[in-house]
Design a protein that fits this description.
It is a single chain. The protein has 128 residues and is an all-alpha fold. Helix content is 64%, strand content 0%. It is built from five helices and no strands. α1 runs antiparallel to α2 (28-44) and α1 (6-23) runs parallel beside α3 (50-76). The chain starts with 5 loop residues before the first helix and ends in a 17-residue tail after the last helix. One of its GO terms (cellular component) is mitochondrial intermembrane space.
Length: 128
């Protein structure tokens, strides 16, 4: 994402810091996993085209928005178990490139390791 206007660089840095702050409100294992993933993704997208940078920012801003809602809900109702994230639709999955599918698979493997100390609620698979 380098080489773009300074406002884009500023927007990226601000979003990056916001996401890491939001991760600070997650359970420790989710925070560690999320922080590493975010760092890798932002690093991996440093030199993308302006169009790709815009799409990247939009997706991560949407993620930050959902995470803000979920962490706020967790703070407001600490006795209730909070589920984090959103389910991917078939359309979302169909829009992914091979590389993204591989990354998603790696993330799923890391998140579902047998010795993990957090639980991921699985939604029933949509049937068509």
């Amino acid at each position: 994402m380098s080489g773009g206007p300074s406002s884009l660089v500023s927007r990226v840095k601000c979003l990056y810091r916001k996401i890491l702050r939001l991760h600070g409100m997650l359970p420790m294992d989710l925070k560690a996993l999320g922080d590493q993933y975010v760092k890798d993704e932002f690093r991996r997208h440093k030199t993308v085209s302006p169009a790709e940078a815009q799409r990247f920012l939009e997706e991560w801003e949407a993620y930050a928005s959902v995470l803000l809602q979920q962490t706020s809900k967790s703070i407001q109702n600490p006795s209730q178990k909070t589920s984090y994230g959103i389910a991917l639709t078939k359309e979302n999955l169909n829009d992914l490139r091979e590389e993204q599918i591989g990354q998603l698979h790696e993330l799923m493997q890391e998140a579902t390791k047998p010795n993990r100390q957090f639980n991921i609620a699985e939604d029933p698979v949509e049937k068509s």
